[in-house]
Each structure stands twice: as C-alpha cells, then as structure tokens.
Amino acid sequence: MNTQPQTTLLGLDLEELTRIAEEAGEPAYRGRQLFEALYRGRVSSADEISTIPKSFRHRMGELGLAVGLLGIDRKFLSRDGTVRYLVGLEDSETVETVWMPEGDGGEEGDGSDAGERGWRRATICVSSQVGCAVNCQFCLTARLGVRRNLTAGEIVGQVIAVLNDQNVSPPLERVNLVFMGMGEPLLNYENFVKAVRILVSGVGIPESRMTVSTAGIVPRIYDLGGEAIRPKLAISLTAANDELRSRLMPLNRKWNLAKLMLAAREFPLRNREKLTFEYVLLGGTNDSREHARELAELVRGMRAKVNLIALNPGPGLEFGTPDEPAVLAFQQLLLASGIPAFVRRPRGRDIYAACGQLKRTLEAAT
Ligand code: SF4
Question: Catalytic residue at 139?
Fold first, then answer.
C-alpha cells in the first residue's frame, strides 16, 4: 500500500518537475516529458503519459506523485453561451471560472475583436483567490472575505479544466485569459506569476492574450512591470476622485489615486500595448457628466483605454444599475476628450456570471 504523502504535479514548473524525475532516479529529460504531458497534453493521470516508460509511471504512483487535475462540481449555462463553472478544490472549497465564447470582447475587452462566432475567440475568466479581501463595495465576492490564496496549480488547473470541458487546444485555437474572477491576483502575487509562466510556456496561451485586473495594489504593479513574462494590465478605478474612491474601494485609503496613477504612468508598456482602466458605473453614484470629466482629466495623455461596465445588480448591494442614456453620455464625453472608451456587454447575467457577481451561494444561483 502506498504510504507516501501525495505530491500534486499540476502547478510545478519545468525545473521542479526535472528535480522530481531526477530524485526518482530518472534522466533529467523526463522532467520535460512530464511538463509537456501535464500542460500541453493535459493528462488526467500518470497512466496516460505514453512518452514515459511504464516502470516510471508505476513508480510515480508508489512515490505519491499525482497529476491533481481539478474537477468541475457544477456548471451553469447562459442563454448567451457563457458557462459558469464551479471548480472543486482539494479542501472542498470551490472557485468560479467563466467561459465566454466570442470572448467578452476578446482580450481587448472592448468588443473590437468579437466579430467571429464560435469558441476560437473565447475568453476564460480565472479566479486567483477563494473570496477576496479587498472589499469593493459594489462586488459580491467581497462579501465572502478572503478564505485563502489559490496555488499556482489551482490557477492553471481552472484553465485546464475548462479547456478540457470545452475540448479546446491553444495555441491553435484562440483563447484569451482574463484574471478578473474571484480575488485580487496581485495579493497572491507569487502563485499568480508562476501560473502565468506555466500557462504561457506549458499550456501555450501567449501572454499578449492575457489581462490581469487589479484594484490597485501599487507595490505589486511595480513588480509586475519588471516581470519578463506578464499579462497586460487593467486597473479598476471606478472613481476618479479620492473621496468617492475611498468610499467605493476602501483600499484607496492605503494607495490613493496619486500613488496609483503614478504607478500606472510608470508602468513599462510594450509595443502597441495599452493600459486598461475599468470603471464600474453605479447609477446615481459615479455616472454623472462631472464624474466623466474627472475621469477624462485623470487619464488624459496616457496610452490607455477605458472599459465602462454597468453595475450588475445583486442582492444586498446598495448601488443601482445606471440608466442606458447615462452610460452612453459618459462614454461620449470620454470619446470627445480623445480617450478610447468602450461599454462592456454584460455576459451571463442570467447565470450570475457577470462581473462582481461571482460566488453567489449555490442556493441563490439555482
Ligand atoms: S471587485 Fe475584485 S478586488 Fe474588488 S472585492 Fe471584488 S473580487 Fe475583490
């Protein structure tokens, strides 16, 4: 009987897998074979790894080396093709991962490349923590508090679980990733960055098709700018003055707009790369012309665009959905100031998959 504690392979990088192979008395190149099988082949057990000898596969079992693929506990299908997955973790927690065919506007997030039908332009919205500690007042995930960080394997594992379920294979088929699910990715920095590297080099999704959204963890924005491999950056603003932003996003008291915008201006953009600013429009709170003018002033002169997201109503939220004319007027004012501004289509509202709605209780969602 196997008495070894289990070691989960998913989430280990090439170096770590090579070390494991060597410690098991195998040649170093077995590490590469494991890496390819886990991330490109997306195997569910060692038995499926036909590139390695049977004897090593057997020994992996004895050594307690398990792939650690994540299971899908529940799946909710929207009329618009969006699928919300409840992905099960080993400790019985769940996280939510959302599949959006045609891509929520693709990685541009603005509808500019969402013309084609079908999954070739799908976007997966990935969670980084169970719950979230940031406490944005307009977000349902915030109600949970943070339960724990996800491991790199759990971040990569969500993507693999969805790709397997949808039977999609990057890089041939175009998949975008947005790290905008549950949690604040930059508060789980090491695991998040490690997962990104594996998703690029292992799973085969180019970093240019990934976007990470932060509520404004300023020191980690600087760190991210220094990474050799990193997604594009989106910053959730939602207010363009400190008084209102501190009310809506309490972390603004720690890193105010001056600090945040300095980090944004100093963020080293690559060729043709733009920053994204997200602005959740809350009816009667931050959606007036004056607010739009303030926002235009704040981002003027930057290589950036603004994504406007009309609030998705939720139980217990004190804010309302803005009127359609107010949303369009807000957008027009930004455009007139020379700032690219897009209104994001809400996806999967009927299954509570839209922004800020993740992690409703199962009872509420069914
Ligand atoms: S909006 Fe994002 S950062 Fe803010 S509480 Fe929700 S999950 Fe956390």
Answer: no
Tokens of 253: 């008291």
Strands of 256-352 (E only): list them: 275-281, 304-310, 341-343
Active site residue 355: yes
Q: Which atom of ligand 1 is nearest to the CA of 215?
A: 3
Distance CA 57, CA 46 (A): 6
Please report, in tens digits, the pLDDT of each residue of the chain (366 residues total): 445 668 999 999 999 999 999 999 999 999 999 999 999 999 999 999 999 999 999 999 999 999 999 999 999 998 888 999 999 999 989 999 999 997 444 444 444 444 444 556 899 999 999 999 999 998 888 888 899 999 999 999 999 999 999 999 998 889 999 999 999 999 999 999 999 999 999 999 999 999 999 999 999 999 999 999 999 999 999 999 999 999 999 999 999 999 999 999 999 999 999 999 999 999 999 999 999 999 999 999 999 999 999 987 777 778 989 999 999 999 999 999 999 999 987 777 676 666 556 654 433 433
Ligand 1 pocket check for 140: Cβ under 6 Å: no
Dist CA 146 CA 185 (whole Å): 12
Q: Is the CB of 12 under 6 A from ligand 1?
A: no
Angle at the Cα of 17 from the Cα atoms of 15 and 19, rounded to 5 degrees = 70
Cα(141) to ligand 1 centroid in Å equals: 6
141 lines ligand 1 (CB under 6 A): yes
Which ligand 1 atom is nearest residue 142's CA? 5
Q: How far is the CA of 236 from the centre of ligand 1 (A)?
A: 9
178 Cα to the center of ligand 1, angstroms: 14
3-class SS of residue 211: strand
